[in-house]
Backbone:
């Protein structure tokens, strides 16, 4: 039994390009992001991988990444489940702001704390711990059982919602996961043991 789980951050979005805090704002992929998503699908296909089901967030950039990846793999017909549990971290009052402007308003140190601490949330938003508190139950209830039954699962989501999963899969602490950068459009391939621990992990080269 393969127990295949592949995680992919969406391709570059319009607000990634503009250096804006995005969070739950529903923005589109750039041309670069579209190319990244298609390339990710081709790379997975080149490794002989296929999927039975996909999971993505309620946000367009992750959904479009899923669609493009599946197109490249010839798997457009598989079921895809969309759920806000996999949404990006909510940046609250920072959403839509340029990161440099936010630093001028609140200070470099404060913005750094909001971005890189595990449990300090920006005004009106979520910390990474808050994000994990909605992502991980969804993973345990909806995604993991399918993987353990032998379904091959593809997840396209966001930097911070995927950090919550990587933290558990790779057994990282809060400081380690905050330092982990997840590149856009670069799949992470996991094969799990029967007890849900990781048997093998492979990052697909960018």
Residues:
């Amino acid at each position: 039994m393969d127990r295949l789980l592949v995680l992919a951050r969406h391709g570059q979005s319009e607000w990634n390009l503009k250096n804006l805090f995005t969070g739950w704002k529903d923005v589109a992929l750039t041309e670069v992001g579209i190319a990244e998503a298609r390339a990710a699908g081709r790379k997975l296909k080149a490794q002989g991988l296929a999927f039975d089901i996909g999971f993505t967030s309620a946000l367009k950039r992750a959904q479009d990444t899923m669609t493009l990846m599946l197109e490249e793999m010839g798997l457009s017909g598989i079921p895809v489940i969309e759920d806000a549990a996999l949404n990006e971290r909510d940046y609250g009052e920072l959403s839509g702001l340029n990161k440099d402007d936010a630093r001028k308003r609140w200070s470099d140190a404060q913005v750094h704390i909001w971005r890189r601490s595990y449990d300090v949330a920006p005004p009106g938003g979520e910390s990474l711990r808050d994000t994990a508190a909605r992502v991980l139950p969804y993973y345990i209830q909806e995604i993991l059982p399918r993987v353990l039954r032998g379904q091959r699962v593809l997840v396209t989501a966001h930097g911070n919602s995927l950090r919550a999963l990587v933290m558990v899969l790779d057994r990282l602490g809060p400081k380690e996961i905050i330092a982990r950068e997840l590149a856009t459009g670069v799949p992470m391939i996991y094969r799990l043991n029967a007890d849900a621990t990781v048997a093998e992990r492979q990052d697909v080269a960018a």
